[in-house]
Amino acid sequence: MEKKTIGVLVMSYGTPESLDQVEAYYTHIRRGHPPTPEQLDTLQSRYEAIVGGFFPLRENTNKQVAALEEQLNSAYPDLQFKCYQGLKHASPFIEDGVEQMAKDGITQAVGVVLAPHYSVMSVGGYIKRAQEKADEHGLKISFVKSYHLHPQLIEALVRRVNTALERFAGISREQVRVIFTAHSLPEKILEMKDPYPEQLLETSKAIAERTGVTSWQFGWQSAGQTATPWLGPDILDVLATVKKEENVENVLICPIGFVSDHLEVLYDIDIECQSVAKELGIRLERTESLNTDPLYMETLAEVVYSQLEGK
């Protein structure tokens, strides 16, 4: 008997594939409004600073999608899984991924976002776009909304925190301030009773409990430059505060809101935060990104499989 093929739409924010695509990418983020020459220059220089023209995020995402397909097919041999990419701001767009599934004759699909925490403004937006396109094609699709407390995800992050803390040789854990971070969103999500901030704190607490870390807090990063206020405090302000008010000299940043190495990790933390930390006299380390960690792939495979009807 032929196995049923389940389509898996793996969604993420997207990134340009090369420097000459940055302008089109930024224009899409700005809803069709091209960036000013200054804005474009700033973004291009950030990419150049981390990658020298090579874009790790797209490569990381491709590897994650391939690894997830492999994990699903080996863990659940009763079905055939085929993964498709759908990006928010770059090609193949979310709609392209759904369209391709329909062309390939897929009749049942699951959508999952490469972000463990739900917000109506992030994951919610991805789901809305995918659902609308699926409805056009009569494709049956259900969605994983969040997986922020999945045991394998927490285990992967716990291991990273423990490994990174070992780098502070001769310094007790109590002397290292662990700061968990995620991408800031506009403050208006608070009025909407959005679960995003609460889910991030739940993940942070779970990791702190498992690692025995008592000196920890949460900080936001990578806020957009818009007229409306975004969630704070920003990580750069947090670094200044912990140094000036508590004389903290050792900091470990654990960016739990990001699942792979990209601009918000490689530039915002590794370059921008490091620069501020040096000025303040803080030793700053960062946990490794999840990328294609087998535990993260297991997490994604399990939440996708359990989303199938009757599982």
Entry keywords:
311 residues, alpha/beta, Rossmann fold, 2 domains, 4-stranded parallel β-sheet, 11 helices, 46% helix, 16% strand, globular
What would you note in describing this structure?
It is an enzyme of class 4 (lyase). Keywords: Cytoplasm, Heme biosynthesis, Iron, Lyase, Metal-binding, Porphyrin biosynthesis. Pathway: Porphyrin-containing compound metabolism; protoheme biosynthesis. Fe-coproporphyrin III binds at residues 13, 30, 46-47, 126. It is a single chain. The protein has 311 residues and is of the alpha/beta class. Helices cover 46% and strands 16% of the residues. The chain contains 11 helices and 8 strands. The strands form 2 sheets. The protein has a 4-stranded parallel sheet with strand order 2-1-3-4, with helices on both faces. A 4-stranded parallel sheet has the order 6-5-7-8, with helices on both faces. The mean pLDDT is 95.
Put the structure in a nutshell.
With 311 residues, this protein is α/β, with parallel strands linked by helices. Helices cover 46% and strands 16% of the residues. The protein has eleven helices and eight strands.
Order of strands, widest sheet:
2-1-3-4
Any idea how many domains? 2
Kindly provide the radius of gyration, computed on alpha-carbon positions and rounded to a whole number of angstroms.
20 Å
The shape is globular
Beta strands, count? 8
Looking at the structure, the CATH topology of the largest domain is Rossmann fold
User: Low-confidence spans: pLDDT under 50, at least 5 residues?
Assistant: none
The largest sheet is: 4 strands, parallel
- The residue-averaged pLDDT reads 95
Q: First CA to last CA: what distance?
A: 20 Å
Main location: cytoplasm
Keywords: Cytoplasm, Heme biosynthesis, Iron, Lyase, Metal-binding, Porphyrin biosynthesis
Binding site for Fe-coproporphyrin III: 13, 30, 46-47, 126
Binding site for Fe(2+): 183, 264
